[in-house]
Amino acid sequence: MRDARNEPPRDVRGGPSRDRLNEPPRDGPSEPLRDGPSEPPRDVPDVREPVAADDAELRSPAGDGGLMEVVHHRYLLKLLLRRELKARYKGSLLGLGWSYVRPAVNFAVFYFVVGVFMGMDKVIKDFPIYLFSGLVLVTLFTETLQAATRSVLHNAPLVRKVYLPRELFPSASLLVSLVHFVPALAILVVGALGYGWRPTPLGLAGAVVGLLIVILLALGLGLLCAAATVFFHDVEQVVDIVMITVSWTVPMVYPWIHVRDHAPHWVLQVWQLNPLVSAVELFHRAFWAPLSDGRVPEPPALTARTASALGCALMFFFIGEAVFARLQKRFAQEM
Amino acid sequence: MTSLAEGKRPPAGPPAVVVDGVSKRFTLRHARSIKDITVRLARRQALSESFDALHDVSLTVTRGETVALMGLNGSGKSTLLKLISGVMSPDVGSVRVRGRVAGLLDVGAGLHPELTGRENVFLNGAILGMGEAEIKRKFDTIVEFSGVERFLDTEVKFYSSGMFMRLAFSIAAHTEPDIFLIDEVLAVGDPPFREKCIRRIRELRDEGRTMLIVAHDIPMLVQLCHRGVMLRHGHKVYDGDVADAGSLWQADKKAERGAR
């Protein structure tokens, strides 16, 4: 009875059915199984007392959780990453090329609708660069968070059967998104150079920090949501819906001065608390500001905002890691 | 099958697995959605019930020992193996092990249908705890044992179920962990392959690996194991001679059949 509940439904391909495995052995004659008189078995407690509580080599079979274990399983992480990439584009003609199509379509829609039709092109100089430098970060964030949220539940057969550091799955999701991010970043750099952009050391350092903020935030929230999804599948839906709003809540298709000019002051204050806003502004400063004509000034106190955004991202990262490490002990029985 | 009297002497050594006063309770949720919860509340039905899969079980396995876990379905054998493998944590008590644990708990859980046999050997090997160099070293042995050489570069979704299980077993059987957990997998494949599996398990045992085996093939267990542990409704009721444990199991089985 218990078995039936605890075992997952077999895959179509799954070999012998559970029924056959659970079948009793053929009814042989019920002779003594071995030579010698087999005295009636007694109900005895374990004669061998648990020994050596202080034996240092004896350890818990499950790890303590935490991302450090992922570092120890680098090779497996690499294989999981490869599996994700291979399985996702399996059987498609374009293969990994699809990872370019999605941001390209996204870019085209935003560029023509917001840039051309709605005239943002005239408000923001070199709008394509402004747009794309925000878009690469937003895509990295939403892709990571969405994939990480599903990662544990979608690996249920493994989680239920083999002990692995479960942090591996959200980590692999992050790596997949980074694999998509790198070529997008290259395109951004080439495009910016084409518009006459020249890098500045401060700008590039800021971009690194901006990237770090997005990675920490996405992984932290990803761990949190992945763990929560195991208990409440609704979380997956919530994350998908919230991700729709991300493109519009960061200054990707509009400049920050529009929030200042068209919304009450407190809205600007709240809006700037979002660490993603600071990350996107850092990318603008790195890749777009050198091209700017000054009509859209740098947002005030960007350095202080950056520090608080980084602090916030770190906080989410540590909370996510701690919550995941705690809840992962119950994953196998909840799935 | 040959008599294995020479292998039956339980080795003396340090403990490899120490299960100390372990209990595990599962909660069965009948309703998850708001709609189901409302319906069940309106009908005054319970939303969930819990039951004890394991109750205060203690067990010490010496290094190099082969132990058979017996019991009817639902007696807690698989739960015990999952606790020892680390997949689940006990509610009460502690489980400690010495060295690397790997299990044949449902072979094939780590195989990915979209990857080829070759890729799966590496992926599943790593999942079961092997490093890159170790897998490379054992690759040929694993492939030869499984007998799927010709289809190594085909995606495993095209494998027959027999081939699939053979590959999965072969990877698992070559991981060489310190503690090997085997759950119900010996019904794998055709009789010749099954014989091969049992030979491999015997080999591992004779190398001095610690093993815990769950199976319903009692005569086989009696031949393979040093010791038998019998579980009944989550309680350990017997721990000792494997043949006696086997007789107990058969008595339980008969009682169950009689009750039907």
From TrEMBL, chain B:
Molecular function terms from GO: ABC-type transporter activity; ATP binding; ATP hydrolysis activity
Name used for this protein in its record: ABC transporter ATP-binding protein
CC per GO annotation: membrane
Database matches in Pfam families: ABC_tran
Keywords, ordered alphabetically: ATP-binding, Nucleotide-binding, Transport
Family: Belongs to the ABC transporter superfamily.
Gene3D superfamilies, per database record: P-loop containing nucleotide triphosphate hydrolases
UniProt KW Nucleus keyword: no
Species assigned in the record: Actinomadura logoneensis
